[in-house]
Amino acid sequence: MERLRIAIQKKGRLADDSFVLLRKCGLRFSVRGDGLLARVKNLPVDLLLVRDDDIPAFVAGGASDIGLVGENVYQEEVLTHSALDLEIIRRLGFSKCQLALAADKDGPICGVVDLQGAKIATSYPAILQAFLDKNNINAGIVEMKGAVELAPRIDIADAICDLVSSGATLEANGLAPFATILKSEAVLIKSKQALCPARQDIYQRLLRRIDGVVKSQDSKYIMLNAPADAVARIAEILPGSDAPTVIPLAGNPDLVAVQAVCTENVFWETLEDLKAVGARSILVLPIEKMMG
């Protein structure tokens, strides 16, 4: 039987988040020690556990059918190797970070224009060069494989271009970010070449599940009671909602139960606005899975 092959980062935050996504999609598998292959027990799917920067090449070369990878890694590899015939199929909404420019918080570099003639340390030279070219900045690039934030302190660069999540590492090294050049998240990538029919069927089945999980992440199910004449105003308040379901309440023709799926964040202010137009007994529930 044909089996769909998915390349995933072996270890790290992206790996952990990817495993969570696939398990939410109903895939049952075990990852053991230094193993490079995990077989899914209930679907014809194999997980290839590799370095994140190898994932684009695995997918482009046909060793893997699809891959879950950080957009920062994907963009760097595509810019470096223009022959990679890949495309982003879905943005997955997790493992978010920013590729940012930073410099000594008390130094002379405070903006992009100050980089003219400077040296910049980074692990993403291709993305950085594309950004510099776009902004007509002539600067030197010092490529590093790690510990980029140390470069200004040891005088090998004037600024850095590195991944930032909380900013704590920059602050600990006396650096301050001044420009974001890429907002990254996990993405699902695939070769532009067609899969064989058997693998295509498995892929489409998995893709529907992924869509259901991703869509449900920010979605909420709202239930409330309200006067029948307030339904139109309630529908206007509910964020990202299609037409709500309205059910008459037994024994009280003036009251209805309103139910809706909201695909945008529901804040306390939303609940207060609903209450102000007559809603009561308001429940906001998380959604685990969705399928259209």
UniProtKB/TrEMBL annotation:
<dbReference type="GO" id="GO:0005737">
    <property type="term" value="C:cytoplasm"/>
</dbReference>
<keyword id="KW-0963">Cytoplasm</keyword>
<keyword id="KW-0067">ATP-binding</keyword>
<dbReference type="GO" id="GO:0003879">
    <property type="term" value="F:ATP phosphoribosyltransferase activity"/>
</dbReference>
<dbReference type="InterPro" id="IPR011322">
    <property type="entry name" value="N-reg_PII-like_a/b"/>
</dbReference>
<dbReference type="InterPro" id="IPR013820">
    <property type="entry name" value="ATP_PRibTrfase_cat"/>
</dbReference>
<dbReference type="InterPro" id="IPR015867">
    <property type="entry name" value="N-reg_PII/ATP_PRibTrfase_C"/>
</dbReference>
<feature type="domain" description="ATP phosphoribosyltransferase catalytic">
    <location>
        <begin position="51"/>
        <end position="211"/>
    </location>
</feature>
<feature type="domain" description="Histidine biosynthesis HisG C-terminal">
    <location>
        <begin position="217"/>
        <end position="289"/>
    </location>
</feature>
<keyword id="KW-0479">Metal-binding</keyword>
<dbReference type="GO" id="GO:0000287">
    <property type="term" value="F:magnesium ion binding"/>
</dbReference>
<dbReference type="Pfam" id="PF08029">
    <property type="entry name" value="HisG_C"/>
</dbReference>
<comment type="function">
    <text>Catalyzes the condensation of ATP and 5-phosphoribose 1-diphosphate to form N'-(5'-phosphoribosyl)-ATP (PR-ATP). Has a crucial role in the pathway because the rate of histidine biosynthesis seems to be controlled primarily by regulation of HisG enzymatic activity.</text>
</comment>
<keyword id="KW-0028">Amino-acid biosynthesis</keyword>
<keyword id="KW-0328">Glycosyltransferase</keyword>
<comment type="pathway">
    <text>Amino-acid biosynthesis; L-histidine biosynthesis; L-histidine from 5-phospho-alpha-D-ribose 1-diphosphate: step 1/9.</text>
</comment>
<dbReference type="InterPro" id="IPR020621">
    <property type="entry name" value="ATP-PRT_HisG_long"/>
</dbReference>
<dbReference type="GO" id="GO:0005524">
    <property type="term" value="F:ATP binding"/>
</dbReference>
<keyword id="KW-0808">Transferase</keyword>
<keyword id="KW-0547">Nucleotide-binding</keyword>
<dbReference type="GO" id="GO:0000105">
    <property type="term" value="P:L-histidine biosynthetic process"/>
</dbReference>
<comment type="similarity">
    <text>Belongs to the ATP phosphoribosyltransferase family. Long subfamily.</text>
</comment>
<dbReference type="InterPro" id="IPR001348">
    <property type="entry name" value="ATP_PRibTrfase_HisG"/>
</dbReference>
<dbReference type="Pfam" id="PF01634">
    <property type="entry name" value="HisG"/>
</dbReference>
<protein>
    <recommendedName>
        <fullName>ATP phosphoribosyltransferase</fullName>
        <ecNumber>2.4.2.17</ecNumber>
    </recommendedName>
</protein>
<keyword id="KW-0368">Histidine biosynthesis</keyword>
<dbReference type="InterPro" id="IPR013115">
    <property type="entry name" value="HisG_C"/>
</dbReference>
<dbReference type="InterPro" id="IPR018198">
    <property type="entry name" value="ATP_PRibTrfase_CS"/>
</dbReference>
<keyword id="KW-0460">Magnesium</keyword>
